[in-house]
């Protein structure tokens, strides 16, 4: 069981950075607009409340120099906005705004936009938001996955012991202690990595005093500290009872364990999807019940598998243990179905988002894994039923009675009959009660192992879902982006420096896609020489490729219009991050091909 868990953790940890959940709904100024006068501030509006970092806004002027701004803050009474004040005077030209905030469900989100004052200029491409640190992202993802897995193991083992009542519980201390220790270590790692994860910094910055104190002031940090405190309190209480050999009443023990389980589950639901969006109180209750039911089923499944592994003889496992777990699993699945349907509706918002968004496609994969898990559970339930039926004749034969006459005098004793060894067909009387039928424990072990393997896959997909933009937010963002902005239509302006290596072979090419969306666009390209003035070149070729969908290269077929190059109609079929390549020939022998990413919206 540890091997697939480790493999899934490594797979998740080395994956691409997870998408955050807060999506930019609008901006003022709007992306790509040209303003007659300089704005006094930049305001971003998101689909949910966001938290601000010490460096949430970085604004660059047309000369690629950083603009000094005021501190970032929220609009009055609007936790879903982020804004920053600008200097009183801004020069004419194009400005780049790079931003990074933390969404309400604890995931950082970043991006960039441009606006122009007076007119668009050939501004150099400003440094975008700092790239995600792969080591930090990998460690954070692995820690989150292990936290989910260990919570299920800890709470599921406790539920299995409390409800299924196995005859021996000493061997179950191993998975319980392993779950508690892993949850403690992974939660500590999540707290230490919180600040580097938000700031896209290296893991080595996790131990700085400023990072630790900053995390303690955020909601995710407070919830992680509460989780650690609950775990330490539970460990201290269990150690005290064990050293003093005290034993609490069963009701008190169950009540304390239930309160602890609910409190631990709340540290997840209060910081993930349920904490943002619509119907937050109902969503937090649903998410908490979903997490507890998942732990009781999947963690209890691991405890049952561990119990079957440590049961050498078929008769050593009472029939009541798998039968009780079957009922526990049925109730857990019922709760999972009800809460899962509600959370899917809340996260998707429409049937179309089920196939058109990453969240919806991941949800479909999880549903397929859950279906496989239910099929394996059905096999386990079948063998459990056979186990129960096989135990009934043995118990019934032990209580069988010899028939007596209903009325009349008692029957006389029959004389002893001699043995007839030479006469076939006369069975000998059994020396004792008939042996109990064999229990199909080996097949039950196999079906439970298959069920546990599918459960690990479900856990991995659940972790991926918590790191994916909900379909409702993604659809709303796409709808907002597709709406035309007021005023001057938006356009995508890309500036790519080039250097052929020859004398006078340096410069930059400015390429404008108007409106920079899916469909028909106009393409205009201007060449600037080393002195910053317009330059003429004998040949220019511009192509676009979408690597994610293996589309392209598509030739824009720009032609020389006497000082600039253009193509009046060029079709972009799909949204996404395209790779724009420009081949510039400055002489008969000197040419160079340069590229840059360009974002195309719906």
Question: How would you describe this structure in keywords?
Answer:
602 residues; alpha+beta; 5-stranded antiparallel β-sheet; 4-stranded antiparallel β-sheet; 12 helices; 17 strands; 21% strand; disordered N terminus
What is the topological layout?
Layout lengths: L1 H12 L10 E5 L5 E2 L5 E6 L3 E11 L12 E3 L2 E8 L7 E11 L4 E10 L16 H31 L8 H27 L9 H8 L2 H25 L6 H20 L10 H30 L10 H29 L4 H4 L1 H41 L42 H25 L5 H12 L9 E8 L6 E9 L4 E10 L10 E8 L4 E5 L3 E2 L4 E8 L3 E10 L5 E10 L2
Parallel strand pairs: 2-8
Antiparallel strand pairs: 1-3, 3-6, 4-7, 5-6, 7-8, 9-10, 10-11, 11-15, 12-13, 12-16, 14-15, 16-17
Helix pairs in contact: 1-2, 1-11, 2-3, 2-6, 2-7, 2-11, 3-4, 3-5, 5-6, 6-7, 7-8, 7-11, 8-10, 10-11
What does this structure look like?
- The protein is an alpha+beta fold and 602 residues long.
- The chain has helices at residues 2-13, 134-164, 173-199, 209-216, 219-243, 250-269, 280-309, 320-348, 353-356, 358-398, 441-465, 471-482, and strands at residues 24-28, 34-35, 41-46, 50-60, 73-75, 78-85, 93-103, 108-117, 492-499, 506-514, 519-528, 539-546, 551-555, 559-560, 565-572, 576-585, 591-600.
- The strands form four sheets. A five-stranded antiparallel beta sheet has the order 9-10-11-15-14, with no helix packed on it. Strands 1-3-6-5 form a four-stranded antiparallel beta sheet. It has a four-stranded mixed beta sheet with strand order 2-8-7-4.
- A hairpin with a 4-residue loop joins β10 (506-514) and β11.
- α5 packs antiparallel against α6.
- The radius of gyration is 34 Å and the shape is elongated.
- It starts with a helix and ends with a strand.
- Residues 1-20, 123-129, 394-402, 413-439 and 479-489 have low confidence and may be disordered.
